[in-house]
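User: Please predict the structure of the protein below. I'd like the answer in structure-token form so I can feed it into my own downstream comparison script.

Assistant: Understood. Taking the following sequence of 308 residues as input:
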Amino acid sequence: MNRISTYVQTISAQAEIMRTQKALAETQRQASSGLRANDLQGFGLDAGRLMSLRTIAARNDAAVEQMRQLTVRVDSQALALERFQAAAEETKAAIADALSLNSGVELMNRLANVFAQARDAVNADVGGRYLFAGASSDSRPVTADTLDALAALPLTDDAFDHADYAETVRLPDGSVIEAAPRAREFATGLFDLLRVIKQFSDGPDGPLTGSLTQDQRDFLTSQMATANGVREAAGVVQGANGGIQRRVDDLTLFAGERRDLWTGLAGEVSDADMGEVATRLSALQTQFQASAQVFSQVSRLTLLDSLR
């Protein structure tokens, strides 16, 4: 007569179910999170390597964000300098038109608009930080609001109020650059030209509001050379900013590639193989169903089943 015992089988089936449940839960966690483990302890000997890779990746994330912000700045500077150069072009055109028509009827109105455009360009800001104010980026670099106010100043230089040194930025490659020229460095020429013409128009040889006298023509003719120089200088400043843009673009691309590289290396350590996880998950589910079925069958066995 065979010995009848289901206790050991029941305990064995129950243990197999618990083991499978634990493995299934871990595999489901990996499937949902995409990570091999929830904490560094779960990575075992790879924990130190993972921490190092994540630290380097975080530094590169910071570099990418820095370059993104710098890109916004230099692009905004480019737009502002384009407006400033357009103002310089309009100054030359206004003087040329007055000489061509032998009339200053529209000249002073056009120059007043030119100053307003140039002032707004030089006072451009991003997020409340003025681009051309140097290190004191929290205050407007141009304080004169109108051409009349500019002409009333003792010196053109008095129209500017900013730091004596430029704002610098340390790039991810370790180099340091000036983020932008200060307003005084590139706007003085145009402002001085506008101020001189305005003072002449308000003086004894003015106003420049009708047919030009010979003295007025001679004066405006003498200012054409200055207007050409101002226009060319504005183009040089804009070109210099374009050089900064190209450098920032290159460093932004490089920083992004480095971030992707180190993030990928960290992922090789921390990320689960989703194909392998899916295969294991399917196998464990089948195994769990089989174990549960065996446990169900064994738990229902009694002595009567063997005596039939």
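That's the full token string. The chain has eight helices and four strands.
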